[in-house]
TrEMBL record:
Top-level taxon of the source organism: Bacteria
Keyword Lipid biosynthesis: no
Protein name as it appears in the record: TetR/AcrR family transcriptional regulator
Lineage: Bacteria, Bacillati, Actinomycetota, Actinomycetes, Pseudonocardiales
Organism: Amycolatopsis ultiminotia
Keyword terms: DNA-binding, Repressor, Transcription, Transcription regulation
Region of interest: Disordered: 1-20
């Protein structure tokens, strides 16, 4: 029996290879969006950036539309870590807001690409449907937290869940766009706690007339 020979690494399955290739293509697309904007993204340029042929990109996504749809979903998924096990309600909503603003300061390529695509969606027909769907899912998540807070009595009874969701989404995305435009003007580490505290005071059922939360 031979000893000292390196063990052969198991061959990757077709699904593993496909997953790895797809992730590389999405990473390349995100880099192109950040560097040159969505109009610079083509299947050929994505393939070239990732080290593959255009045919591989077409095989994976079929079209630029499908590629951008996949990028939008991948770049926003799991954006705020650490809240998956927190039950819906006031605490989860405040943690989500705080975490979202803090993550905006990480300057990750995926996060920046998402914000640029989101801003572009206002005038780009190929993006508007995808981002309407993504925003509606986010608003539903936020509304669910408010509804839970109303049920358990931790949030003010006069709140309208949908209105709170629209306002929260608008604020956190607006902060993100400001940071893209002028990073030095937006201290997300400090701002994350301030914004989260403002929302807790605004939503909490125990807040007094001066907006302070009573223990």
């Amino acid at each position: 029996m031979l000893t000292g020979m390196p063990a052969e690494s198991p061959r990757r399955t077709q699904e593993q290879r496909r997953t790895t290739t797809g992730a590389a293509l999405l990473a390349a697309a995100a880099e192109l969006v950040v560097e040159s904007g969505v109009r610079a993204v083509t299947l050929a340029r994505v393939g070239e950036r990732a080290g593959y042929s255009r045919g591989i990109v077409t095989h994976h996504f079929g079209s630029k539309q499908a590629l951008l749809d996949a990028l939008a979903k991948a770049s926003q998924g799991g954006f705020v870590p650490g809240i998956g096990d927190v039950p819906p309600g006031l605490d989860r909503l405040v943690l989500l807001i705080e975490g979202y603003v803090r993550e905006l300061g990480r300057d990750g390529v995926n996060g920046r690409a998402f914000l640029l695509l989101w801003a572009e969606a206002a005038t780009a027909a190929e993006l508007s449907g995808t981002f309407r769907e993504r925003d509606e899912a986010f608003r539903a998540e936020l509304s669910g937290d408010v509804e839970a807070g109303l049920r358990d009595g931790t949030m003010r009874a006069d709140l309208v869940p949908r209105d709170v969701a629209v306002a929260v989404l608008g604020q956190v995305r607006g902060i993100g766009l400001q940071r893209l435009l002028d990073p030095d003007a937006v201290d997300t580490e400090r701002l994350s706690g301030a914004v989260a505290g403002q929302w807790r005071r605004a939503l909490c059922a125990e807040a007094g007339a001066d907006g302070e939360v009573r223990s």
